[in-house]
Design goal:
By secondary structure, the chain is of the alpha+beta class. It contains 15 helices and 15 strands. The protein folds into three domains: 88 residues, Phosphorylase Kinase, domain 1; 199 residues, Transferase(Phosphotransferase) domain 1 (Transferase(Phosphotransferase), domain 1); 184 residues, no CATH class. The chain has a six-stranded antiparallel sheet with strand order 1-2-3-4-6-5, covered by helices on one side. Strands 12-13-14-15 form a four-stranded antiparallel sheet. Strand 13 and strand 14 form a beta hairpin. The longest helix has 22 residues. The radius of gyration is 23 Å and the shape is globular. About 28% of the residues have low confidence.
Length: 523
């Protein structure tokens, strides 16, 4: 196979950027739309007869259609699927990036604070996928892509299965390492939503410990046996992640948290760990934050996009996870700049006055007894957020290979100025948010802080709400304190009705220094 070949009459192959047991990934150009894409050539196993080969081709097309259902800021989008030269091809979003596995191979175990931020974004994508009835089935470091701006996306939903597609995978097929499999899958049971949660835990475990939870045995059968036994080695370097990892890695699938619960807890851990060590953030660069070389992983899964077929089975749609501490009722305060994408917001909560739409389409956090922090606390929090962003940027900007599309950009960075300038910038950020949100909910979503995104609960609900609004006008806006903007909004619904509301929006700085909306209440 050579570069410059045209696939499906429109996708010109430019450069080979990844390979694995199941296929090769190319950076390509969609000549019809003039955009860069990732094109995955899926291998057919040697020894298949024609009927078996045709089954693989048709299965790949079905998998492509299933993956295309998911449109989320932290998941690679699938654009097209076709058969070319008797081989199946998938066309996906392209993201200049590197995989978490490559990052670990180069740098060794990572700081738990950084891992919590990465895991939060992956959990967000899994939550959306599960809501769409899609099981990823191959969550591992090689399928977690990290862009140069810190955006995290999970790829290779090409082997995912939607509930009800019973013929997708032949029973007994297993390719690639079993190191990140859930014990029940290793024992021959069907992959479920809870299995994805275990694999997420195994991925985060490897990121902080340097090895997967069942070790790094080269013998795949021996490792599969260890996974099936379900005896996880407790982490020793995970720090604040330890308790959550052990819940994610529980042997009983019904006792694991849901992705949404994991997302909230990871966000809380990232914030708490970061804000508690401002001085160390100021002193450390990435090399100082890493675990010593002597404890680095020998795991060498560097392929960012190779798919792995596994035994099929319909995931149980009734699994809801175990009772788990819910961060939704608490405001964790300023985040580690997690406006670079996290969890999806849910449909709007009921309004106190019983009419009209919600401005941000999210349940408002209680702000009745809002405290104004002292100047020293504000400065400390801002410093922690900015330095956390610097740490992440240093960690993630080495290398640029992978298969992912454009990320939701973070708000434009603005310097820290005097109080008057700060308040002016906050008001401008609110006006800017409402000027773009109806036309581009994804861009609006990127202007919400982690707290607001968690309170909201789901990107699908956020999109659904704004799809009913034709326009929103800010008729008045003023900063009523150093982190609150009061805005008068006029909504025009697509059915022609209008409503006027006054909202108070709690504001905070994101990683790049831009203003994000962290909370909202109607007054």
């Amino acid at each position: 196979m050579t570069a410059r070949r045209v696939v499906a009459g429109r996708y010109r192959l430019e450069e080979r950027i990844g390979s694995g047991a199941m296929g090769v990934v190319w950076r390509g150009t969609d000549e019809r739309l003039g955009r860069v894409v990732a094109v995955k050539q899926v291998f057919l196993n040697q020894g298949l007869d024609e009927s078996e080969a045709d089954e693989v081709r048709q299965r790949t097309l079905r998998e492509g259609r299933i993956a295309a259902r998911l449109q989320h800021p932290h998941a690679i989008s699938v654009f097209d699927a076709s058969i070319e030269g008797d081989e199946p091809w998938l066309v996906m979003e392209y993201l200049p990036s590197r995989s978490l596995s490559a990052m670990l191979a180069e740098q060794g175990p990572l700081d738990p604070r950084l891992v919590a931020r990465i895991g939060r974004q992956v959990a967000d994508a899994l939550d959306a996928a599960h809501q769409a009835g899609i099981v990823h089935r191959d969550v591992k470091p090689g399928n977690v892509l990290i862009g140069s701006d810190g955006t995290v996306k999970i790829t290779d939903f090409g082997i995912s299965r939607a509930t009800g597609d019973l013929t997708l995978t032949r029973t007994g097929m297993l390719a690639g390492t079993p190191a990140y499999l859930a014990p029940e899958v290793a024992r021959g049971e069907d992959s479920t939503f809870a299995s994805d949660v275990f694999s997420l835990g195994a991925t985060l475990y490897a990121a902080v410990e340097g090895v997967p939870p069942f070790g790094s045995e080269d013998n795949a059968l021996a490792l599969l046996h260890a996974v099936a036994a379900g005896a996880v080695n407790p982490p020793v370097q995970a720090g604040p992640l330890t308790a959550l990892l052990m819940r994610l890695l529980r042997d009983d699938p019904t006792e694991r948290p849901t992705p949404a619960q994991a997302r909230r807890e990871l966000g809380r851990i990232a914030h708490a760990a970061g804000s508690a060590s401002t001085a160390s953030w100021a002193r450390a660069d990435l090399d100082e934050a890493r675990v010593p070389d002597s404890r680095r992983s020998t795991e060498s899964d560097r392929v960012a996009t190779g798919s792995r077929g596994r035994s099929g089975g319909t995931p149980s749609p009734t699994w809801h996870g175990s009772p788990f501490p819910d961060a939704g009722s608490e405001d964790p305060g300023p985040t580690l700049g997690d406006g670079d994408r996290v969890g999806p917001p849910a449909p709007p909560a009921p309004r106190s006055n019983g009419s009209g739409p919600r401005a941000v389409a999210a349940a408002p956090a209680s702000r009745a007894k809002r405290r104004r922090p002292t100047t020293a606390i504000v400065v400390a929090v801002l410093l922690a957020a900015v330095l956390a962003g610097v740490l992440l940027a240093v960690a993630l900007t080495r290398g640029s290979t992978g298969t992912e599309g454009a990320s939701l950009g973070s708000p434009t960075s603005t310097g820290v100025a005097g109080p008057t300038d700060e308040r002016t910038q906050m008001v401008a950020a609110v006006r800017d948010y409402y000027s773009i949100v109806t036309a581009n909910p994804g861009a609006g979503w990127a202007r919400l802080g982690a707290t607001m995104q968690d309170t909201a609960g789901g990107f699908g609900g956020y999109q659904s709400f704004w799809s009913t609004i034709a326009s929103v006008q800010v008729t008045d806006a003023e900063a009523i304190d150093d982190d609150t903007v009061r805005a008068t909004l006029v909504f025009t619904s697509k059915n022609g009705s209008t409503s006027r509301e006054v909202h108070e929006l709690g504001m905070g700085r994101g990683t790049g220094g831009g203003w994000l909306i962290n909370s909202e209440r109607t007054v």
